[in-house]
Design goal:
This protein has helices at 2-25, 37-47, 60-63, 151-161, 163-167, 174-181, 183-195, 201-207, 219-233, 240-247, 253-263, 304-307, 339-347, 349-355, 370-373, 380-388, 399-410, and strands at 119-120, 126-128, 136-137, 282-283, 316-317. It has 435 residues and is mainly α.
Length: 435
């Protein structure tokens, strides 16, 4: 009787877990911001148009490409000045060659138009500050333009302002010079360039009723169109897991074991929860440090850079796990090449750090940056601080457990994730080449 009683309790607990996760994790079209389709169509063109970059040689799509799951497929990207796409991108040459890698991994774009999204960037430096989602805390502070339609629009402004990502430096082009002078001056320079491209005027007039002529185009319309495209295009909630939740279709046996571990003993759902599989909070999980960082040319202190709070040192935003199998490498700097490596790290960060080697990073070769790429790893004080700030608990997982969790994560891949409705345009109004 006691054995049967225990079995009954276990079955009841499993049912409660499945029901609670189903209630928490389901997602539908109504959960997303209702962006204007005409603005999304314009945003698609702007997203792939290099006109938004200072030297007109890189677009948003270069680092968030449709063929690469909305990312660039490398640990740390090669931004303004580079040539090519994804792992084959090179650092350029001569006077226009890159001076630094992008310090963090290009984040995926999946489901960023969901109404619950309230923080963006790995350190959350763009954040919603009101219940209606219309006011934002950003590095631009009071210079952030008014009229942005979402946090996505606020976020879209900042890659344009980064000299390493899109703007270039002051001596190279007037957009870079304007951004160096003041951030809103740079945005005005970008908008002016779009205004002076006649082929864009009819697209803006169609998407925004208040745009009667080119002079009515501002950075706000540009950012809102980009947001409409990103928020509409990268929606994904048709995975096998979604079918399991909504129709009760069983998962494969290994994925089902992984699901039980994920929501149970492995503790993954403590942070990866809700429909986005993210608590949108910040945690220090000890991802190996390398690359240029954002402090002193080598360190990255994570959320602390934004808040100034020492308690936030080395904390980064919990990433969403939807379509995670399509968006490697993993970690805020892409330290881990496979899901299996990332799961193993999360179960035992200290042990994983000890075993990690530089060849696990996917870094396109840049001869003049090789010596600096892993310099921070020789800073013993920094490595000790990283370990001292861990806020994860070691979990004992067998190789079979890791395989099962990995199998579950693969069930979060949407059926339509690699055949999105709009895709990449063949041409853009500026006439510049499309990556």
């Amino acid at each position: 009787m006691r054995i049967l009683s225990r079995l009954s309790i276990s079955l009841a607990t499993a049912c409660v877990m499945a029901t609670s996760s189903a209630n928490a994790d389901t997602m539908s079209k109504s959960d997303f911001i209702n962006f204007d389709p005409k603005q999304a169509a314009l945003g698609q063109l702007l997203f792939y148009d290099k006109i938004l970059s200072g030297n007109q040689n890189i677009s948003c799509g270069t680092c968030h490409h449709h063929t690469l799951g909305g990312t660039d497929g490398v640990s740390l990207g090669i931004g303004e000045g580079g040539e090519g796409l994804g792992p084959n991108r090179n650092p350029g040459s001569g006077e226009t060659k890159i001076a630094s890698r992008i310090p963090r991994n290009a984040p995926a774009l999946w489901n960023l138009g969901h109404r619950d999204v309230r923080v963006l960037f790995h350190d959350g430096r763009v954040e919603v500050t009101d219940a209606k989602g219309g006011r934002f805390e950003t590095p631009a502070e009071a210079r952030l333009p008014h009229g942005l339609n979402s946090i996505l629009a606020a976020q879209a402004l900042f890659p344009m302002s980064s000299d390493a990502e899109m703007a270039g430096i002051a001596s190279e082009n007037p957009v870079g010079a304007a951004f160096e002078e003041r951030i809103d001056h740079g945005w005005e320079a970008v908008a002016n360039r779009v205004r002076n491209t006649p082929e864009y005027e009819p697209h803006f007039a169609k998407a925004f009723p208040h745009v009667a002529a080119a002079q009515d185009i501002t950075i706000v319309e540009i950012a809102n169109a980009l947001a409409a495209f990103i928020g509409t295009e990268w929606q994904s909630f048709d995975s096998p897991y979604d079918t399991y939740l909504t129709a009760g279709t069983p998962l494969p046996a290994d994925a089902e074991r992984g699901r039980q571990l994920f929501f149970g003993e492995a503790g993954c759902a403590q942070c990866h929860n809700g429909p986005l599989f993210s608590d949108q909070d910040f945690h220090s999980v000890g991802v190996p440090a390398f690359g240029p960082g954002r402090i002193d040319g080598q360190r990255d202190i994570g959320r602390m850079e934004t808040t100034g709070d020492p308690d936030d040192a080395y904390k980064f935003r919990t990433p969403s796990l939807r379509n995670i199998a399509l968006t490697g490498p993993y970690g805020h700097n892409g330290a881990f090449p496979t899901l299996r490596d990332m799961i193993r790290h999360m179960a035992n960060p200290e042990g994983s750090l000890a075993d990690w080697t530089p060849d696990m990073a996917s870094l396109p070769k840049v001869a003049w940056l090789q010596d600096a790429d892993f310099k921070v790893m020789s800073d013993q004080n920094e490595m000790q601080r990283l370990l001292a700030n861990l806020d994860t608990t070691k979990v004992s997982l067998s190789d079979a457990d890791i395989s099962d969790i990995e199998a579950f994560l693969h069930t979060l891949t949407g059926a339509s994730a690699e055949a999105l409705p709009m895709g990449r345009p063949d041409t853009v109004p500026s006439g510049l080449p499309v990556d």
